[in-house]
Structure formats: structure tokens, C-alpha cells
């Protein structure tokens, strides 16, 4: 299985090696800062996909009340709940997987960089005499991160991972968000044996994600909220109701029939009223 992964990622590994060589030899970066620059280049290439991710997360957040209502309605029927949610996604053009795409695309880069650093000291470093493998005089990029000041790098990594996960999980449900926030701590036993250069790469990625989240929240406009429907809103073809007060144009029959239009008095000369002679008593 490992051999298959190496053969599949070999072209990407060669590209990363050449980029690191160019950043060190031509751009003048140290090997550690070349990894930082490589991370920035990778994230710049992923900017279009990241923008789609942000729009997708904002869209999910705008429709969160409607999705929660669907989940509550079909909470006893998980299959029907999933079907209704998928239908809702299609109708509103929502792609829930878009928020994970930048992370998935970075996994091959992360694995390829692991193989580059594993043979770096023997295959690449001897061709550049006088160069240094240290970063800030704290860690050697080819040694396991648990050596020397590496544990401090792990602490910074966990803090940066928690902050980046916070911005990525704003639209997730409670359990999913807690799981995403706990994962960086769960990964610590596995990453302590990784080369310190990998931690520099992932730490730079997390700092980029955090800064990106802060900037996009201020600059990118939020999508318009979905139109709210009210049961009291009259239909478009329904005529407005006629009132019986002073503003009404007709009056209803006493027997409940259809309303008849009121008649206005016709203007004319005043009528003469004849007085009766004698008033209340007769003449003598």
C-alpha cells in the first residue's frame, strides 16, 4: 500500500523538491523558510477554491434554520431526513462538501512533503554546502518534532489548529463542531514523530486559514437571506377585502348576500314642504 502511495505521489514529490530548491538557491531563503514560502504558494493556488468554500459556508449559515426545521420534522426517520436534506441542497444549490475541499487538496501535498523531508538530509542537503536545516535556532526540519524545542512547536500548532477549525466549523452542528475542535489534540500522539518541517508547513497553513477567516468576514459580502413566507400574506391574484366602514365601497345585505354598491344622492333644488293648517287643534 505504501509503495502505491509513493508511486502515485511521485510527480508531486518531484515538483515540491524542485520548488524548494528554487526557493533556496534562487530566492535566497533558508530551507526552513523555503517551506514557509512553499506553503504560501500552495495556499495562493487554492484561493479560488477557498472563495467557493467561504461562499458555501455562508450559504449553509443562511439556510441553517430551514435545515434545522427539516431535521426536527424527520428526526425519527433518518433515511427520509437525509432525502429531504439532499433535496433541499439541490433546490438551493448548496454543496456541503465544498467546505472540506481545501483540506482534502492539501493532504497529497502534506504526504508528498513528508517523503521529501524523509530523504532530504541524504539526497538534497549535501548538494548545498554551508546551508542550515534549522528554523529560528529551535528545530531541525528533518528531525522528529519531539526533539529539542519541538514540543513548543506542537503547542503553537495545536493553538493555530483550534483557531483555524473555529472559522471552518461556524456552520456545523454541535457534535460535528466539537469533534473538529478535538481532533488536533487527538492527533498529537501521531505527529510527535513527524519531521519538524511538516509542522512548520501545517502551522503556516493554520495561520493562513485564521488570517483568511478574519479578512473574508470583513470584506466578503454575505449572501442575501432566503425569503421568509408568511401564512397571512394574501395571494397575488386575490382582490383586497372590502370593508364595511367608511372606507368601504359597498354594503352587505342583511341576509348575508353579496354587497351592493351604495347610491349617492343626486344634487337638485330643495323640496318644498307644505305646512298643515291648524297645527294640533281644529278651528272654531
Give your account of this protein's structure.
The chain is built from eleven helices and four strands. With 284 residues, it is mainly alpha-helical. It has one domain (2-219). The strands form two sheets. A two-stranded antiparallel sheet has the order 1-2. A two-stranded antiparallel sheet has the order 3-4. Residues 228-238, 243-259 and 279-284 have low confidence and may be disordered.
Topology:
Elements: H1 2-25, H2 31-45, H3 47-62, H4 64-73, H5 78-92, H6 101-118, H7 120-123, E1 134-135, E2 139-140, H8 150-168, H9 174-186, H10 188-191, H11 196-219, E3 250-251, E4 260-261
Antiparallel strand pairs: 1-2, 3-4
Helix pairs in contact: 1-2, 1-6, 2-11, 4-5, 6-11, 8-9, 8-11
Strand fraction? under 5%
How are strands sequenced across the largest beta sheet?
1-2
Question: Helix share of residues?
Answer: 55-70%
Distance between the termini: 138 Å
Number of domains: 1
Give the mean pLDDT: 77
Radius of gyration: 37 Å
Class based on secondary structure composition and strand pairing: mainly alpha
Q: Give the overall shape, derived from the CA principal axes.
A: elongated
Describe the sheet with the most strands.
Answer: 2 strands, antiparallel
Regions with little confidence, pLDDT below 50 for 5+ residues = 228-238, 243-259, 279-284
Number of strands: 4
Key attributes of the depicted protein:
single chain, 284 residues, mainly alpha, 11 helices, disordered C terminus
Summarize the structure.
The protein is mainly α and about 280 residues long. The chain has helices at about 1-25, 30-45, 45-60, 65-75, 80-90, 100-120, 120-125, 150-170, 175-185, 190, 195-220; strands spanning about 135, 140, 250, 260. It has one domain (about 1-220).
Amino acid at each position: 500500500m505504501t509503495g502505491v502511495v509513493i508511486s502515485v505521489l511521485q510527480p508531486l514529490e518531484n515538483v515540491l523538491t524542485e520548488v524548494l530548491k528554487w526557493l533556496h538557491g534562487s530566492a535566497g531563503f533558508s530551507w526552513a523558510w523555503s517551506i514557509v514560502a512553499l506553503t504560501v504558494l500552495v495556499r495562493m493556488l487554492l484561493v479560488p477554491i477557498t472563495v467557493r468554500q467561504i461562499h458555501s459556508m455562508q450559504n449553509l449559515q443562511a439556510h441553517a434554520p430551514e435545515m434545522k426545521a427539516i431535521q426536527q420534522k424527520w428526526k425519527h426517520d433518518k433515511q427520509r431526513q437525509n432525502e429531504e436534506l439532499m433535496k433541499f441542497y439541490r433546490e438551493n444549490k448548496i454543496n456541503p462538501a465544498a467546505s472540506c475541499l481545501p483540506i482534502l487538496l492539501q493532504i497529497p501535498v502534506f504526504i508528498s512533503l513528508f517523503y521529501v523531508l524523509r530523504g532530504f538530509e541524504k539526497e538534497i542537503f549535501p548538494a548545498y554546502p554551508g546551508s542550515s536545516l534549522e528554523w529560528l535556532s529551535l528545530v531541525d526540519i528533518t528531525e522528529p518534532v519531539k526533539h529539542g524545542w519541538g514540543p513548543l512547536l506542537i503547542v503553537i500548532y495545536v493553538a493555530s489548529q483550534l483557531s483555524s477549525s473555529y472559522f471552518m466549523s461556524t456552520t456545523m452542528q454541535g457534535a460535528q463542531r466539537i469533534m473538529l475542535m478535538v481532533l488536533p489534540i487527538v492527533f498529537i500522539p501521531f505527529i510527535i514523530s513527524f519531521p519538524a518541517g511538516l509542522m512548520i508547513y501545517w502551522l503556516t497553513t493554520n495561520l493562513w486559514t485564521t488570517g483568511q477567516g478574519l479578512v473574508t468576514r470583513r470584506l466578503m459580502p454575505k449572501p442575501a437571506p432566503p425569503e421568509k413566507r408568511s401564512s397571512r400574506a394574501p395571494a397575488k391574484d386575490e382582490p383586497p377585502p372590502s370593508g364595511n366602514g367608511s372606507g368601504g365601497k359597498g354594503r352587505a345585505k342583511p341576509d348575508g348576500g353579496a354587497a351592493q354598491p351604495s347610491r349617492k344622492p343626486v344634487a337638485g333644488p330643495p323640496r318644498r314642504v307644505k305646512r298643515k293648517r291648524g297645527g294640533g287643534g281644529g278651528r272654531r
